[in-house]
Amino acid sequence: MAMLEVEGLRKSFGGLTATNDVGFHVDRGEIVSIIGPNGAGKSTVFNLITGVYRPDAGDVRFEGTSIVGKSTNQVVDLGIARTFQNLRLFTNLTVLENVLISQHHRLRSNWLSAVFRTPSYRRQERAMREVATEKLGFFGPRLQSFRLHQPVYVLSYANRRRTEMARAMATGAKLLLLDEPSAGMNPKETSEITQIIRRMRDEGGYTIVVVEHKMNLVGEISDRVIVLDYGQKIAEGTYRDVVNDPKVIEAYLGKKAGDDKREELADG
Ligand SMILES: Nc1ncnc2c1ncn2[C@@H]1O[C@H](COP(=O)(O)OP(=O)(O)OP(=O)(O)O)[C@@H](O)[C@H]1O
Ligand SMILES: [Mg+2]
Fold first, then answer.
1. Cα separation of 153 and 90, whole Å?
2. Which of 34, 60, 48, 5 is nearest to 234 (CA)?
3. Above 80 in pLDDT, residue 170?
4. pTM for the structure as a whole
5. CA-to-CA separations, 16 to 30, 49, 60, 68, 184, in angstroms, rounded
6. In this predicted model, what pLDDT tens digit does every residue of 61-91 receive, in sequence order?
7. From ligand 2's centre to the CA of 179, what distance in Å?
8. Alpha-carbon distance 169 to 109, whole Å?
9. Quick one: which atom of ligand 1 is closest to the CA of 46?
C-alpha cells in the first residue's frame, strides 16, 4: 500500500477548475516532485491534501485511511506536515520558538502544569527542545548559535524557508509536502537545499513531495515527477521521461515551441 494515495481530485473556485481529476500515489521513502507552469494547480493539490480546502470530488488516503474532511490540525496529527509557498512563520518569535511551537500539539499537559512548571512539563519541554535543535541541525551553521534566538523578522528569506522546513519536520510528521523550498534562493543555496532534502529522506526517514520550478533541483532529487497543466495531470515518470515528453514541453513553452522541439527531436 502506498503511503499517500490521491484519486480523482477536483476543486473549482467559481468558474475556474484549479484541479481536475488529479490522481497519483507516493510510496514510503520516495521523493516525488510536482511540476507545472504557474497556476497549474500544484499548491491547490497541497491544500487539498492538508485540509485547507475540501475537494469537490475525489479522495485522499494516508496510510490506507481517507483524510478528506479532516482539519489541518488533524492532518498534522496523523503525520503530514507542509511548508507554504508564502511562508507562514510567527515573525516576532525566534527561530527556536517557531520550531518549538509546531510540537505543542503533542504536549500532554494542561495550563496548570505549565504555570507551576511541574517535572513532567519540564521533561516534555526538554524533549521538545532536543527535537527542535536536531531538526534545525539539518541546516548546519545557518540556523545555529545566535540565529536560534533571533526573531524571524531579521532573517533572510532563505533562512525563513529553512526555519519553516525545520518546523514541518519537528511536528513529528512522516510525510512532508514542500511548496517551492528553493524559492528566493541563489544557485549555491539551491544546491545546498537540494542536498538537505535528500538527507531529510535518507537520514531523517521522511517521505517527501516537492513542488518546484527549478529543474536542476527536481532532476537531482526526484524518484518520480508528476506534471500538472491547467489543473490536470499531463505526465508522470522519471525526470528524463517527463522533460522529454512533448506534452510537457508544449505546456511549458507553448504549442509552437512544442512543435519545433518535436521536429528537432524527430530530426536529431
Ligand atoms: N482560493 C482560491 N480562490 C480562487 N482561485 C484560486 C484559489 N486558489 C487557487 N486559485 C486558482 O487556481 C489555479 C491554481 O492555483 P495554484 O495556486 O494551485 O497554482 P500553482 O500551480 O501552485 O501556481 P504557482 O506555480 O504560481 O504557485 C490558479 O488559477 C489560481 O488563481
Ligand atoms: Mg503554487
1. 9
2. 34
3. yes
4. 0.91
5. 32, 19, 21, 21, 28
6. 999 999 999 999 999 999 999 999 888 899 9
7. 7
8. 22
9. 18
Give, in order, the Cα–Cα distances in Å from 61 to each of 74, 78, 176: 14, 11, 15
The pLDDT of residue 257 is 57
Dist. CA 41 → ligand 2 center (Å): 7
What's the pLDDT at 249? 93
CA–centroid distance, residue 13 to ligand 1 (Å)? 9
pLDDT tens digit string along 137-163? 999 999 988 999 999 999 999 999 999
SS3 254: coil
pLDDT at 69 (0 to 100): 96
Domain boundaries, the chain: 1-71+208-268
Q: What are phi and psi of 58, to 5 degrees?
A: 105, 175
Distance of CA 243 to the CA centre of its chain: 22
DSSP letter, residue 174:
S
The two beta strands, 31-35 and 224-229, are parallel
Cell match 521522511: residue? 206
Q: Give the containing element (helix H, strand E) for 264.
A: helix 255-267
CATH superfamily for 1-71+208-268 is P-loop containing nucleotide triphosphate hydrolases (3.40.50.300)
Atom of ligand 1 at shortest range from CA of 44: 18
60: exposed, middle or buried (Cβ count in 10 Å: 0-12, 13-18, 19+):
buried
Pocket of ligand 1, beta carbon within 6 A: 13, 16, 18, 36, 38-44, 85
